Inverse folding.
């Protein structure tokens, strides 16, 4: 900072860098109030509700039922099929996003010029609301008037129009496509930043040792990229696993519940069936699954990485 | 890559200028033969789309402001707190960001109902500010730690209190990071759907995402595609303009957290 050099340090003042505890406490107060109100209390409340049968059936009285809701979860085939749809959606879309995102980032790190404009065009889908993106793709894949069926029929690849959103497999495919379209730019931007943090002289060192593309990637690019990869991956896994807007607006979970994800099911349990206790149990189960996935990812990516390098 | 990013939007731009008769023609025409403005007219004149716009801008702007105000104070405290406190606080903030939004939905709804704030903008402004707080604090703490401590020591010599030092010295120096945090918080609030869908059910209170997603035709079975296309374009343009203008800041904000 330019101004920093103009100011002479004053030795006799006894303000060390650190604040007294009550002082930083005061600065943190507004944030703490917001987080308590909007985040901490709702989490505690959701966990408490998951052990109760509060809902329409008992006029919203809170009666404890112990693990009753969780037992019900295990025998609920709709929850099981929700988990399956969510897992399929998460694994397919996150894998595609990272494969395409990494490929594009590796290609783009070679170019130096013109990156700004390309990046901002490419970033555009990521900034759009997911609910709007759902509307956008359902028009494109509309069975009667959609452009996809129109083009395929024009090219004589298709005899009769496909009901993309009316068939379980293709409906999931369109959901994944829309998610990949929206989120690959995010992955790309984060991974590109990771690639730009790699010191170039390390590549030269490998070249001098006669190393090719793979050793360069394995021993130089990957170690520097890994922290970026880890953060982006965890973040995306959680987002994809909690997918709501896209499914709710585009397919509503249909056809016949084939694309109903856990979040959509929980939302309906809360707001339509007004079965609050059971909805909360679904949400708690979802968090537990996410925790296990996050810990597993951490062990797999970060711990192993620490041992190898 | 750019074509793939833009083509779906371009197709909606084209569709939004087609008349209902042309929209339902098979196979679809690539360009509107007789461009019409009727979809936009319907959207803004006969539907309360202007109202959705105002609601969304007010909610997104106020929540971004509230978020950055709280986050900047917290970040300053953390930047100057001891290592142990900072580490604990930032990692618990990160944990908050990992909870899916449906966790907060029902308890928030209960509180909002109890406070009589259903359909009221504050029922979204406060939750959005809080949900964007972790990443904003994270971003700002990193930035503020780089501001030399000597500036504050000099301010203390001049008799400035901690809070005045924060307002007059730290905040102006943090402008680049503050604006990045505010832009991202604004975009996230503009885009949020689940809470807005639940807390805003009156036409005049709806936000843009909920408004467009729940647009329906005169009859239940009729989907007004031209209107929807116009809605997609009208709700996306401000965001696309934001990315074009603030591209560098957005990228800086997205990547600031992951490198540390």
């Amino acid at each position: 900072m330019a101004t920093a050099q103009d100011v002479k340090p004053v030795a006799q003042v006894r303000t060390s860098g650190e604040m007294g505890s009550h002082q930083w406490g005061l600065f943190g107060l507004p944030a703490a109030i917001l987080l308590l109100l909007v985040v901490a209390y709702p989490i505690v409340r959701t966990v408490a509700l998951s052990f109760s049968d509060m809902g329409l059936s008992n006029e919203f009285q809170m009666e404890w039922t112990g693990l009753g809701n969780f037992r019900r979860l295990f025998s609920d085939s709709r929850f099981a099929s929700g988990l399956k749809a969510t897992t399929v959606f998460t694994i397919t879309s996150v894998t595609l996003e990272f494969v395409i995102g990494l490929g594009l980032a590796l290609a783009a790190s070679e170019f130096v010029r013109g990156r700004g404009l390309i990046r901002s065009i490419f970033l555009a889908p990521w900034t759009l609301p997911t609910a709007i993106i759902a509307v956008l793709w359902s028009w494109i894949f509309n069975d009667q008037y959609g452009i996809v069926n129109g083009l395929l029929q024009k090219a004589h690849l298709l005899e009769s129009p496909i009901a993309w959103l009316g068939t379980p497999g293709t409906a999931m495919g369109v959901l994944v496509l829309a998610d990949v379209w929206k989120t690959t730019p995010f992955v790309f931007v984060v991974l590109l930043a990771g690639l730009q943090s790699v010191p170039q002289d390390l590549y030269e060192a490998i070249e001098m040792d006669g190393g090719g593309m793979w050793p360069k990637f394995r021993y130089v690019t990957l170690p520097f990229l890994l922290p970026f990869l880890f953060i982006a991956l965890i973040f995306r896994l959680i987002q994809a696993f909690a997918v709501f807007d896209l499914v709710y607006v585009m397919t509503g979970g249909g056809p016949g519940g084939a694309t109903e994800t856990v979040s959509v099911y929980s939302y309906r349990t809360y707001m339509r069936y007004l079965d609050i206790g059971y909805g909360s149990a679904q949400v708690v189960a979802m968090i537990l699954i996410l925790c296990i996935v996050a810990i597993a990812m951490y062990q797999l990516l970060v711990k192993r990485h620490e041992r190898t390098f | 890559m750019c074509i793939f990013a833009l083509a779906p939007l371009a197709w909606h731009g084209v569709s939004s200028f087609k008349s209902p008769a042309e929209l339902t023609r098979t196979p679809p025409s690539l360009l509107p033969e007789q461009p019409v403005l009727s979809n936009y007219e319907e959207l803004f004149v006969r539907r309360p789309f202007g109202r959705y716009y105002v609601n969304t801008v007010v909610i997104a702007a106020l929540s971004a402001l509230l978020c950055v105000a709280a986050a900047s104070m917290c970040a300053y405290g953390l930047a100057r707190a001891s290592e142990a406190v900072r580490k604990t606080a930032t990692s618990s903030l990160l944990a908050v960001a990992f909870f899916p939004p449906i966790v907060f939905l029902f308890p928030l709804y209960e509180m909002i109902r109890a406070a009589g704030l259903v359909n009221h903008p504050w029922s979204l402004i406060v939750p959005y500010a809080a949900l964007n707080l972790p990443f904003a604090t994270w971003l700002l703490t990193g930035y503020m730690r780089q501001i030399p401590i000597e500036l504050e020591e000099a301010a203390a010599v001049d008799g400035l209190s901690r809070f005045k030092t924060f307002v007059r010295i730290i905040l102006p120096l943090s402008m680049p990071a503050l604006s990045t945090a505010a832009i991202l918080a604004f975009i996230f609030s503009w885009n949020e759907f689940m809470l807005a869908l639940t807390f805003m059910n009156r036409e005049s209170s709806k936000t843009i995402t909920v408004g467009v997603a729940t647009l329906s035709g005169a009859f239940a079975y009729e989907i007004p595609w031209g209107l929807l296309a116009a809605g997609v374009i009208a709700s996306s343009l401000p965001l696309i303009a934001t990315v074009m203008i603030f591209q560098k800041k957005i990228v800086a904000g997205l990547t600031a957290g992951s490198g540390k």
Q: What stands out?
A: The CA atoms of residues 154 and 259 of chain B lie 32 Å apart. Chain B has 13 helices and no strands.
